[in-house]
Design goal:
Layout lengths: L1 H25 L6 H31 L2
Length: about 60
């Protein structure tokens, strides 16, 4: 179930982090640039984990043979 949930949440993480970063660059008095970059970094990390889990979904049935 986890790899399928990543399809929903990883793009949202990139979208929200990207919007936050753009907003922080346009109005620096608001702050939040580091938080937006952390959100984008976390999205990349989760994307890597999701790709690994998808790979496992395809490789595990092949290992039975």
């Amino acid at each position: 179930m986890v790899p399928y949930l990543g399809i929903l949440f990883v793009p949202l993480t990139f979208l929200i982090g990207g919007c936050g970063y753009v907003a922080a660059r346009r109005r620096p008095q608001l702050g939040g640039r580091r938080l937006a970059l952390r959100s984008l970094s976390a999205g990349l990390l989760v994307l890597g984990v999701q790709l690994f889990l998808w790979w496992l979904l395809y490789i595990v049935p092949e290992l039975r043979r």
